[in-house]
Amino acid sequence: MKSLEELREIREKAKKHVCRYRVHVCGGTGCTSSGSLRIIERLEKEIKANGLEEDVEIVKTGCFGLCALGPIMIVHPEGSFYSMVKEEDIPEIVSEHLKNGNVVKRLLYEETTKTEHILPLEETNFYKKQHRVALRNCGEISPEHIEEYIGVGGYEALGKVLTEMTPQDVIQVITDSGLRGRGGAGFPTGLKWKFAAANEADQKYVCCNADEGDPGAFMDRSVLEGDPHAVLEAMTIAGYAIGATQGYIYVRAEYPIAVQRLEIAISQSREMGLLGDDIFGTGFKFDIGLRLGAGAFVCGEETALMTSIEGNRGEPRPRPPFPALKGLFQKPTILNNVETYANIPQIIINGPEWFSSMGTEKSKGTKVFALGGKIHNTGLVEIPMGTTLREIVEEIGGGVPNGKKFKAAQTGGPSGGCIPAEHLDVPIDYDNLIAIGSMMGSGGLIVMDEDTCMVDIAKFFLEFTVDESCGKCTPCRIGTRRMLEILEKITKGKATMEDLDKLEELCYHLKSNSLCALGQTAPNPVISTLRYFRDEYIAHIVDKKCPAGVCKDLLQYKIDADKCKGCTLCSRVCPAGAIVGSVKEPHMINSEKCLKCGACMEKCRFGAIYKE
Amino acid sequence: MPEKKQTVPFSGTKEQEEALLQVIAGLKDEPGALMPILQKAQDIYGYLPMEVQKMISDETGIPLEKIYGVVTFYSQFSLSPKGKYRISVCLGTACYVKGSGDIYNALMEKLGIVGGECTPDGKFSLDACRCVGACGLAPVMMVNDEVYGRLTVDDIDDILAKYE
Asked: In whole angstroms, what is the distance from residue A210 CA to residue A183 CA?
């Protein structure tokens, strides 16, 4: 790539190539898991059989967001949204829709067919409050073809930066935009770049944190799968801004599709001269290498990540010195998260004012959340900062299924906290979430209903941190284990109120004494559940009851004598022989023998068995 | 937790060794090459027994204790072989609140092994993993590369039967 003109020629050529129909099939992890690749194969076969090769183009895209309804297929130009597509539906869609031009209404996403005219996707509840910036190209282009990215304006920002701007200009634009780190901590990106740019060195590095370890979060994966070139372009811009010539992307090995698309993207960029020597004929050189993680949560911490790229055990090191001074291989380094990078090219093109016009006073732009747990529309959503949790859960997410009551939303993963119903109307931004005892985190948002036990959830996260603590510093290594032991005691009904005091004290020690953020934030799930759901802890400790009916040791299965018909089914399925009674007489459960497996309750046809 | 069963004797072939040497020769001079070498070595052998770690140490000059330290730090590196069918149950938050813990327990019971182990016939190995990212299908488990979603405990027998 020798000039901007050359780039624009490729773009015009990409735009001219238009078929009558362009069928987008999601090739992200979610839809692939529900069989979208088989859908693509079948589509290809049927299109051939109908002689439509010239009229229809099939594009395997990244994530559309509505993972709960996968596999998803969208037919353009009109944007017909087929959800939960089955292989057997394909012949009908091809012959009716793609050949005869009649949309197969009964297979469309239900909400779009309720009105007389088919509702455009942007107006459905799931999409109407969303604003896609980081996810702009996900689901729109083929991530495996660089021409498609260039066709939607890709690499224009890099061209502009290299040919028209100084590194100081670039840093100023990013600073003015108000962009803060999307990995969770929210450090101003422009400031980070400025520090690294100010330090002189023979070599500097630009790193990308794609080690998305927070369980239940898949924002970064979706960006990498759907729009890998945006990240490469942004890293190259960052390289120019701080004066680095080498970048590294540290990506989880658990994301095979993302890794593969990144490999393809890097080699295409090199081939086109958008990575390598003399980019855009300016003499600027930059290259990017891929490093795979190997399953260690702590490697999401910046110093641990760099230690891991260096080929060591991924243990964090004390700061200062900060990475901007001594980072990877002891050289000045910046590390940003995938989603942060995905915003950069558009800030350059549209200007900092455009970006800072979105969001709240101190948190600009949008944020991507991975919505999961007890919610209708599981998936990926991107909303302007300042949107309330209620809008996300009730409108975009479609609320809690099965008529259950919303109990809490968990953000920030093992470092975050649970937000109860009383705070549903707080506008989401970095500072507000911290004020209510949680944190933005990387964007996992798990909804919990009345059947979730908050002590059990706290225990779940502590099990996670015990597993993932690297063991380097004592407060985290020993402290998390002691906390887990107390939580186990509580869920078994063996704890006293003194144990609860000890638990709170430990929280304080871990927070103030751990070496890195993993240990410092590990108590957060406990602190926040104690803050909002203390009565549940007390119910476990004092009343020896689990109000949500989750903690097995505190449960008793009982039979309602009025409802029991004496059919004997329960006594036959009980693996422990704990249920006694004669035919047509109410049965009884012997609680000493009962294993609390729940098999009887599942099988009872009269709803006579309950737990308390 | 019951103790882990071990150890299968090492049975590397000449071809595997050659493939490994080639990988090492290609990566040796890169900064931070140890991780990529270990990842490729595990692709070749399926796991990282002492014998393989020694070969890597001899070729790269990296001390064996450092290699062992790295191998045991990361959960994806395994010192023991995996089953022909590797089952991993997602215990990420989204799957957990939808009951993947019950699925995991039921699998341990049915296979007669605990997490991290392999059945004595070498057929199934079981692991817990943290989020495969298919949260829309929670709860999820994987058998090799095949993903099974929206699971209930009752589905397990049918899935295992596919691989018998």
From this structure: 9
Which of the four pLDDT bands, split at 50, 70 and 90, describes residue B7? low
For the four alpha carbons of A325, A328, A329 and A333, in that order, the dihedral sign comes to: negative
* Final residue before a domain boundary, out of B51, B73, B95: B73
The residues near A581 (Cβ < 8 Å, ≥ 6 apart) are A564, A566, A568, A571, A587, A588
A interface test, pick of B72, B135, B143, B153 with most A CB neighbours within 10 Å: B135
Contact, A347 vs A95, CB < 8 A?
no
Q: A30 in contact with B at a CB cutoff of 8 Å?
A: yes
Q: Which of B73, B74, B136 sits opposite A68 (nearest CB)?
A: B136
Distance between CA atoms of residues A443 and B31, nearest Å: 32
Q: Clarify whether residues B104 and B47 are in a common domain.
A: no
Give the closest of B77, B96, B137 to A30, CB-based.
Answer: B137
Greater model confidence, A610 or A265: A265
pLDDT (0 to 100) of residue A116: 83
The reply to whether A292 touches chain B by the CB within 8 Å rule is yes
Distances (CA, A) of A336 to A28, A154, A185, A351: 23, 20, 11, 20
pLDDT at A501 over 50: yes
Q: Does A4 touch chain B (CB under 8 A)?
A: no
How many distinct structural domains can be found in chain B?
Answer: 2
For residue B76, give the nearest of A68, A295, A310 by CB distance: A295
Mean pLDDT of A516-537: 96
CB contact under 8 A, A444 and B36: no
How far off is chain B from A55, nearest CA to CA, in Å?
A: 33
Per-residue pLDDT of A348-367, as tens digits, reads 999 999 999 999 999 999 99
In chain A the domains, ranked by start, together with CATH numbers, are 14-120 (3.40.30.10), 153-355 (3.40.50.11540), 366-449 (3.10.20.600), 454-541 (1.20.1440.230), 556-611 (3.30.70.20)
Is A255's Cβ below 8 Å from some Cβ in B?
A: yes
Per the structure block, which two tokens stand in for A497? Answer: 């109120």
What Cα–Cα distance (Å) separates residue A50 from each residue in A45, A86, A87? 9, 19, 16
ipTM reported for the complex surpasses 0.90: no
Residue B7 lies in a domain: no
Contact list in B for residue A329 (CB cut-off 8 A) is 31-32
Which has more confidence, A599 or A559? A559
**CA-to-CA dists, residue A186 to A346, A413, A439, A442, A479, angstroms:** 19, 15, 10, 10, 27
Residue of B nearest to A453 (CA): B97
Over the stretch A237-263, which tens digit does the pLDDT of each residue have?
A: 999 999 999 999 999 988 889 999 999
Task: Let me know: does A100 contact A125? Beta carbons within 8 Å.
Answer: no
Domain that holds residue B116: 85-162
Q: What are the tokens at A478?
A: 């020993």
Tokens of A363: 């948190």
pLDDT of the residue at A612:
80
